[in-house]
Amino acid sequence: MSDFRSKIIEHISDTIRDVPDFPKPGIIFKDITPLLRDAQTLSMSRRLLVEPFAGQKIDLIVGLESRGFLFGPAMAMQLNAGFVPIRKPNKLPAKTLSASYQLEYGEDSVEIHTDSIIKGNRVLIHDDLIATGGTAAAATELVEKLGGTVVGYSFIIELEGLRGKNSLKKDAQYEALLSF
Ligand code: AMP
User: Fold this and answer.
1) Is 180 in the pocket of ligand 1 (CB under 6 A)?
2) 124 vs 105: CA distance, rounded Å
């Protein structure tokens, strides 16, 4: 990594705020709102998120609710791609496909509009953070069931110890700006 790139990444990393015991006891929430608030880290983050995929043929960025909606559309515009939201249950108005995944206790699910992916579409999945990888794996299942191909994953933050990467497609490009 160039000195310049690592300095910027360090600066972005310094803006992430740890909020202990949110949303429940024992969780250290990685809050990206200070990163978004600062003009320089906001635009640098978008630039660094897009850079590894520049020049590739990507048809769609699929963003995961809700913080995947913050950079997803901006990245899509720069990569000449469209944007598709994956949402929590009962939020999308038209016909949906749904996938469930395991949480520490219980189950959760996510949904996508069935007409949002066209067979053969090359898809980049984006979210602010990957923890266990359950959400991104469920998103992969939805995209591929509708005939799309997941060619990449993009996260601002990975919680490395939780090894979320292991639940994702091995042959897709994986990028995380910051590791904690
Ligand atoms: P997972 O499915 O376990 O990879 O969890 C990823 C999703 O949960 C993402 O949408 C994150 O925004 C959110 N998330 C999980 N853990 C954290 C955390 N420690 N701080 C902020 N967001 C989190």
Assistant:
1) no
2) 29
